[in-house]
Amino acid sequence: MLLEISDLSARVAGKEILKGINLNVNAGEVHAIMGPNGSGKSTLAQVLAGREDYEVTRGTVKFDGQDLLTLPAELRARAGLFLGFQYPVEIPGVNNVYLLKAALNAKRKAAGQPEVDAYEFLSLIRQKMKFMQMSESFLTRGVNEGFSGGEKKRNEVLQMLVLEPKLAILDETDSGLDIDALKVVSTGVNSLRDASRGVVLVTHYQRLLDYVVPDHVHVLSGGRIVKSGDRSLAHELERRGYDWVLESRVA
Amino acid sequence: MSTVMQSSAGGSAAARSFEAQWNRRSADPLLPIREQAMETFLKLGLPSLRDETWRYTDLRALAARTFVDAPRRAQGDIHPTASLSLFDAKQRAATVLMVNGHPMLYSDEMLINDMEISSIKEKSTLDPKLIAGFVGAISDADQHRWVLLNTALFEEGLYLKITKHSTTPLVILHVSTGDGGHDVAYPRVIIDARAGSSATIIEHHVAQGEFTPLVNSHTHIALGSGAQLEHYRVFATGTAATHIDTLDIHQERDSECKQFTIALGGGLVRAALEGHLNQPGASLDSYSLLVGHAERHVDCVNIVSHSAHDTKSRQTARGIASDHSRVIFNSKVIVDAGAVHSDSQQSFRGLLLSPTAEMDSRPQLEIHTDEVKCAHGATTGRLDPDMLFYLLSRGLDRDTAQSLLVFAFLADVLTGMSMASARSAIENALISQLPDSQILRKFR
């Protein structure tokens, strides 16, 4: 089991947002977590990545055999967990390529590998950027500085491709993308799919799931997973809306 | 000088010692101006916390001390410690050495990089009217209090005349070196950039030896029509040093001045800047990098006056304060009646890195006309938690992430520097005063 979430509850600023999440992700699987606004999807993603101002009040999370909740954010990343942010922050003055290199070296160091060779690194980045259809000018700019919404999301996927995480949690990576960008981003995510990795897609719409086909779909509402199913559940949600799940649960 | 003055009743110990210095000076062509400056100073005394531009810097301890002239040194004895290498080895740049305010020149009048260089004293015997035009303004404004003292007591000073496009930068290396804890130096510089000329000038303040004099320095920059100047003043003296520096910039039509104030050293650094945009089209772009480290106190005061229409000023200041340091950015833009279409911006951002550090900012605007564009903003805070989490979530360790963010915070000032070599030297010196300097170096 790659990720094993049991009874996870968490609060933000004193307010209980997650109320007992149970979710298992095996290597090789893609899971989609859907749900209405305010259901706790992003909170779940941030809690898994190790955001400190989100307080875990109950439950356990195992990642690749380790107790995830005891690790600070940077060690989670080095252990192979990647969060693609819904709103990637702009950091003027920190160069995009510095960040990529530092992130890759941090991961390599943790794995007992030497730092990446400068030439090798640049050719790797160039190759991945070409794949993500990004212009080389991204290399010299500050992290996400002045990027459009779509560019920021591509940059998140680029980072993911360079870091090759075991588990990628992509928080609304599809939001704000036009159809061409959505295809590029989806191709990026699909290229990472293999038997050793897992992907958790957090999304509001099923549109992305036409391109990155999930093995499992879960509906999160009120801080709990209220329904799980296969990809057909996403289509049903698209047709009947979230109210349908919530009502059927009450009934 | 020969005139013996009446000792001022309210004078502090320091003021009395300055007066004693005055009584030992010999007459020169500037005597009437110096006399008036000394009288005005003794009448007004040292500035105090009640004075508008001194409200953040308490000089009472300094006022209780007494001072004597800092020694003259032979050139062979000068080996400044802690000076930054502002140039690559292969880069051509000329350096004029100024030790405790005394320029070390090979002849009375030199030509370096097409700039005419002499001592102010020498020039004032040849052309007293010219020099009087630069040193003659006696102001009782509190930000000029120490300038009065400098005007009265500076001995030689340095005069620079720029008439052409000077392609290589000129460094004025100010070395402060005392014999004991009671020395004072009065460096004085005049930069006379004539119409259409251009140059880059760096004033680099460093110290040598165990004792650093109290430095009361003044630089007067005059830019003729269309002249362009990039000017740096870099304070890199030791932790015990007290440095009071005042920079006056007077600009004529369409002249452009880019000014960098870099406070990286010293115990108490007071860096005042007065910009006078006297004619239409003049523009002043000022950058301040104020680094509070250990017990350092940095008091930066900028006053920019728009006296003519279509003038432009930009002030970009970034401060960081760690340990027990204190950083102040006190700025004011004055738009005179008639200075329509003036365009000014004041931006200060401060970063507090320790709960015992302190930061004050006070951007002010005084507008006496309509149709102007004036903006100001000041923020002080801690590191942005969203940025920090983003970097941590990519696997960077906390120290590295924090250092990167601190450095990034200062980038607006650093990237404004046209001189790549000066910028990298300043960056290096800066890094060494930031937490986790070892880590940061890997990123340069």
Describe the overall structure.
- The complex is a heterodimer of chains A (251) and B (444).
- Chain A has eight helices and twelve strands.
- With 251 residues, chain A is an alpha/beta fold.
- Chain A has one domain: 3-Layer(aba) Sandwich (Rossmann fold).
- A six-stranded mixed β-sheet of chain A has the order 6-9-10-3-11-12, with helices on both faces.
- In chain A, helix 6 (179-192) links the parallel strand 9 and strand 10.
- Chain A is globular and about 55 Å long.
- Chain B has helices at residues 13-24, 31-44, 60-63, 120-126, 128-135, 145-153, 385-392, 398-409, 411-414, 420-431, 437-441, and strands spanning 68-69, 94-99, 102-104, 109-112, 115-119, 158-162, 170-176, 183-185, 188-193, 198-207, 214-223, 228-235, 242-251, 256-263, 268-277, 283-292, 297-306, 312-321, 326-335, 343-352, 358-367, 373-381.
- Chain B has two domains: 13-279, no CATH class; 383-444, no CATH class.
- The N and C termini of chain B lie far apart (53 Å).
- In chain B, the strands form two sheets. In chain B, strands 1, 4, 5, 6, 8, 9, 11, 13, 15, 17, 19 and 21 form a twelve-stranded mixed β-sheet that branches. Chain B has a ten-stranded mixed β-sheet with strand order 3-2-7-10-12-14-16-18-20-22.
- Chain B has 444 residues and is α/β, with parallel strands linked by helices.
- Chain A binds chain B through residues 49-53, 72-74, 76-78, 82-83, 85, 88-89, 91-94, 98-99, 102-103, 106-107, 110, 142-143, 159, 163, and chain B through 384-387, 389-398, 400-401, 404-405, 407-412, 443.
